């Protein structure tokens, strides 16, 4: 039998079962074998009845002492009740609506039971355990537990998997021998067999490692191959070792944190190395990424090049421009700005000064990647808040120069694992420390019933002259979801705070209008801002001390953390209130993580563990397909090994043309499917 054959080729799978399997995306024998257990039941040895623990699944060998059939009563569940015993004690076994089993269990006969014990009025019970006649002993060993849907039982799935394993050919090694050896991978067929039906723990672990490794390797190699950056490993501009950045660092009003120092060190090393820098700097909100960028820009200018920094919004660009102009003026370095809202004349002047080299550092929005913008000698490009830009825009900025160095900055902390996947083509640095003296933002989680006390608190803050953000997840009234829509909330709060200026900001507004409102908030002409999640990242309004988030359960933790980072930016004590409607365990857990921690990396990791990577980091947008066995949240260590191999492969054979990688290439195409255009 071959892997590509349909499942109906197996005995016992007819059209109906095939349809049920289809729901699990299993069509072929290969799909079936790639459908892995979610767990295992250890039935290698028997437990004795007196050692049973409530809720802890156990395997029992016992003899039937008594069979009690409840008399048939209309509308009542019929219960089949057994009393069974071994040398240590006795327990009850219950089956509901299963009178047909009555004849199976005969007093004096021995059976094996596997199930979860429960205690009822002091009696140990098993309800609907798995069972078989002891003399046949077909249930022993480590049994796989598959994540199933309706219409298929564990027993069936196990039988089919066993049959498929026994009859299939063509689970052959497809990775190069040296790679397999280097990574001490076990044989592929052995791996598949042992992941389904392990005899021992060790082969299971080996097999699992192999399959996870394979899947991650296909993923990582596929992503690298599809993103082939022209600059990978290319020679780049050499920034002079003599261009000392100390004068700039000494002119700052504060000392750099250790984390900033080490990231600056990594950047300077790249810039002097002779290879093109492609570096991502991750740093929590407020960790001080801007000054790191400034130092890199200073290095560029002192090495005789121009630098450019692109921000995702006009307001952010303006803030950067104001800060940089001030800081660089003391060093006689001219900073220019280019944004969409400038007049044609203003633009012309900037473009002129840029092409002559009079402007040494340009700050701006997307406007700086327009075709009419040309530099004299651009040596370094920086994009702030990288997650707001696509790879395309990043590259468009690079093309303004002759292969300039690239630095991207993001405040969305990405666990290291995911950074490797999402930014496989970048080196990653982390500023994992906040400047000293940062105040802690007091965070509280409250439920709906205490909403009003929350707004009483807002009132007090506003009376003190502070400002507040209120965030709601959706813009339109939505009865279905029953969430506070921004519009509704805005009306409500306008009435609630008649003495204050209340405004609404939402995603459907024109950019210009959004900028206007944000500017007014910045200037304290607006005191309370109701908004959907579009509050601009990186925005700095030190007078805002309150962040209220409605329906907090609808936001990801990483997002909540981002939003909270909008306050606590000045000298006043700041607060974040999470209003949660849902009272589930997970909702509580999530809220508690926010209350307890202010560490973006920690929060991101928790978020990853709770929700999985797809939802949080838009891994799909980055072209990451669904995985069958690997888990980006759990298999970080393996991923690091995989990354090394993937780098080697792509360096050796960027388009996977050699015979050696035929199998891997097939595997990659299989994994990414049609929605991925591999340039292979
Ligand atoms: P982000 O990483 O969110 O972009 P910023 O670069 O805007 O953070 O920095 C936030 C604030 O911290 C700024 O006001 C900046 O001047 C200040 N800052 C940066 N580094 C330090 C430091 N080492 N010590 C004290 N304050 C710092
Ligand atoms: Mg910033």
Would you mind describing this structure in some detail?
This protein is α/β, with parallel strands linked by helices and 680 residues long. It has 5 domains: 1-41 and 148-171, DNA polymerase, domain 1, CATH 1.10.150; 45-139, Nucleic acid-binding proteins (OB fold (Dihydrolipoamide Acetyltransferase, E2P), Beta Barrel), CATH 2.40.50.140; 173-232 and 638-680, no CATH class; 246-431, P-loop containing nucleotide triphosphate hydrolases (Rossmann fold, 3-Layer(aba) Sandwich), CATH 3.40.50; 442-597, P-loop containing nucleotide triphosphate hydrolases (Rossmann fold), CATH 3.40.50. It is built from 22 helices and 22 strands. Helix 12 links the parallel strand 14 and strand 15 (405-410). Helix 6 packs across helix 22 (662-672), helix 8 packs parallel to helix 9 (289-302) and helix 13 (416-422) runs parallel beside helix 21. The radius of gyration is 31 Å and the shape is globular. The protein starts with 14 loop residues before the first helix and ends in an 8-residue tail after the last helix. Residues 289-290, 384, 538 line the site of magnesium ion (MG). Adenosine-5'-diphosphate (ADP) binds at residues 254, 256-257, 260, 283, 285-291, 411, 435, 538.
């Amino acid at each position: 039998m071959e892997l590509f054959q349909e499942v109906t080729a197996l005995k016992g799978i007819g059209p109906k079962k095939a349809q049920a399997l289809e729901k699990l995306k299993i069509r072929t024998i290969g799909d079936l074998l790639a459908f892995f257990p979610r767990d295992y039941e250890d039935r290698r040895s028997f437990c004795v009845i007196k050692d049973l623990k409530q809720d802890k699944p156990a395997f029992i060998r016992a003899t039937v002492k008594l069979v009690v059939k409840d008399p048939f009563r209309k509308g009542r569940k019929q219960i089949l009740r057994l009393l069974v015993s071994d040398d240590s004690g006795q327990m009850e076994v219950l089956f509901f609506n299963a009178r047909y089993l009555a004849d199976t269990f005969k007093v004096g006969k021995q059976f094996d039971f596997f199930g979860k014990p429960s205690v009822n009025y002091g009696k140990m019970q098993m309800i609907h355990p798995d069972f078989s006649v002891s003399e046949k002993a077909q249930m022993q060993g480590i049994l796989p537990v598959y994540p199933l849907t309706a219409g298929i039982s564990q027993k069936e799935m196990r039988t089919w998997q066993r049959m498929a394993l026994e009859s299939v050919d063509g689970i052959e090694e497809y990775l190069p021998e040296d790679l397999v050896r280097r990574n001490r991978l076990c044989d592929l067929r052995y791996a598949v067999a042992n992941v389904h039906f392990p005899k021992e723990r060790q082969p299971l672990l080996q097999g699992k490692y192999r399959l996870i490794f394979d899947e991650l390797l296909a993923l990582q190699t596929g992503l690298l191959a599809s993103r082939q950056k022209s600059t990978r490993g290319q020679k780049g501009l050499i920034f002079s070792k003599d261009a000392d950045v100390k004068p700039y660092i000494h002119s700052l009003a504060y000392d750099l944190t250790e984390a900033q120092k080490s990231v600056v060190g990594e950047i300077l090393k790249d810039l002097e190395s002779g290879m093109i820098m492609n570096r991502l700097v991750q740093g929590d909100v407020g960790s001080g990424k801007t000054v790191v960028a400034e130092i890199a820009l200073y290095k560029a200018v002192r090495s005789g090049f121009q630098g450019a920094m692109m921000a995702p919004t006009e307001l952010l660009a303006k803030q950067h421009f104001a800060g940089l102009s001030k800081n660089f003026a003391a060093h006689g370095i001219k900073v220019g700005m280019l944004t969409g809202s400038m007049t044609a004349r203003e633009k012309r002047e900037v473009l002129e000064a840029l092409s002559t080299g009079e402007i040494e550092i340009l700050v701006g929005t997307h406007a700086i990647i327009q075709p009419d913008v040309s530099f004299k000698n651009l040596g370094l490009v920086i994009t702030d808040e990288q997650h707001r830009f696509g790879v395309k825009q990043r590259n468009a900025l690079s093309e303004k120069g002759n292969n300039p160095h690239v630095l991207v900055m993001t405040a969305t902390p990405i666990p290291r694992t995911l950074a490797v996947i999402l930014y496989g083509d970048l080196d990653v640095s982390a500023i994992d420390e906040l400047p000293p003296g940062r105040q802690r933002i007091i965070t509280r989680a409250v439920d709906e019933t205490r909403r009003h006390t929350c707004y009483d608190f807002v009132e007090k803050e506003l009376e003190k002259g502070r400002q507040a953000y209120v965030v709601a997840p959706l813009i339109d009234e939505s009865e279905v979801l029953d969430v506070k829509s921004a519009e509704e909330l805005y009306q409500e709060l306008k009435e609630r705070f008649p003495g204050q200026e209340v405004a609404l900001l939402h995603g459907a507004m024109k950019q210009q209008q959004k900028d206007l409102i944000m500017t007014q908030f910045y200037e304290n002409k607006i005191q309370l801002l109701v908004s959907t999640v579009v509050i601009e990242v990186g925005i700095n309004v030190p007078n805002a001390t309150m962040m209220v988030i409605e329906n907090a359960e609808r936001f990801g933790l990483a997002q909540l953390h981002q939003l909270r980072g909008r306050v606590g930016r000045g000298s006043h004590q700041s607060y974040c209130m999470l209003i949660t409607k849902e009272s589930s365990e997970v909702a509580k857990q999530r809220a508690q993580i926010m209350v307890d921690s202010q560490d973006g990396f920690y929060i991101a990791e928790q978020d990853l563990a709770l929700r999985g990577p797809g939802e949080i980091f838009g891994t799909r947008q980055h072209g990451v397909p669904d995985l069958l066995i690997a888990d980006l949240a759990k298999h970080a260590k393996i991923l690091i090994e995989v990354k090394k191999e993937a780098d080697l492969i792509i360096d050796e054979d960027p388009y996977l043309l050699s015979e050696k990688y035929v199998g891997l290439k097939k595997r990659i195409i299989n994994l990414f499917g049609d929605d991925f255009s591999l340039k292979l």
